[in-house]
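Much of what follows relies on a compact textual record of a protein's fold. A complete example follows; check for yourself that the lines match position by position.
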Amino acid sequence: MNKNRPTGMFGFTIVWLGQIVSVLASAMSQFGLTIWMYNQTKSAFAMGMMQVFFITPFLLISPLAGVMVDRHNRKLMMMVSDMAAGVATLAILAFQYFGILQFWHLYVTSIVYGLGMAFQWPAYSAAISTMVSKEQLGRANGMMSLIEAGPGVLAPLLAGALLPVIGLTGILLFDVATFLLAIGALMFVHIPQPPRTEEGQEGQGGILKEAAYGFKYIFARPSLLGLQLVFFMGNLFWGISGTVLAPMILARTGGNSLIFGTVETAGAAAGIVGGVIMSAWGGFKRRVHGVLFGWIFSGIGLAILGLVGGLPVWIVGMILAALLGPLLNGSNQAIWQSKVAPDLQGRVFSARRLIAWCTNPISPIIGGVLADYVLEPAMKTASPLASTFGWLVGTGPGAGMGLLFVVCGVLSALVGLAGYFFPAIRNAEDILPDHDQLKTVEATV
């Protein structure tokens, strides 16, 4: 029976292990495809469009995906997301194997990948709430942050070493195989369904009504809305600058993929350290400090990435930006998981992600256009902009994108600082009751 299968922190750890191996392989594929894409296009705009094609369908279907997560078995929803990612990777593998891969194929498969990932985050987030205790949420989310950061340490090194040996085709094949491992781990464990609450009953109805309820729930609670507006603004600036990270480093190094991989590895290593600390510590007792401090100091790291100085400066900026990520995201996730009833988390978390990420389809366009057509040309000439900021970010290829990093990093840090000036955000944990104080109307397993 399902009840006899592993659950709790042990079951969560099994799922986590399957995911971290799969994400390692996907990160290797992404690294190889990033280099391939740059060599094909030499354009920050073209590379940024991959994010647009991923995030747009992701956001459009997210409210409906949240309803499906709340209505149906969450293990099944987690498998759906893994299978969609596997299908997208399998398509790229086929195109590459037959020698017909073109850069626009990555746009098409990004759409499929985005549709699948719309189910993954709310399903995994909600599943954690039913698998582990409230006291373990910070640690569990710290482990989840390792899935984002951990593979990035090895992926660039492994991909760089294996590309000359097995080629992009071999790496993609390995990626497809690991999706089967991740799905197998899910099949092995028991993921309890959440108990039904009165709040959950209030949101029941047709699929559109239930999708809208996630937004209604957030907008009725100024503290939750305030937290999401912090992420809305912060993600906008991170999205704009993140679009040009690869082209900035490659432009400043003459296309040196080793240096680019070193910077990414440094950031991933810092993310691992931050994730390990968060897993062991669990974050500040008042988790809102983790959110706002995280935005402030990660924004400072983002600004450092744009400064003149080359590899040492990039490593310092990347480490600072990535080190605070697990604290920032883990603290925020724990707040939401403890405050929102588990039978509502699919809908509410999907609405939450849509609010935080709604600028993502345009931020790569903004970053790419500013880089290719405004800042890069200006910083290559004796323009007033180059004269004013040349001492800070240098001049020549990549300098305009460096200036974009500085501006976005400063604005991101100010977003975190501003959160302390709003009581609804600063005192969110006191204002909102924990969901385990809510009345349960039905027990489900």
Remarks:
- The radius of gyration is 22 Å.
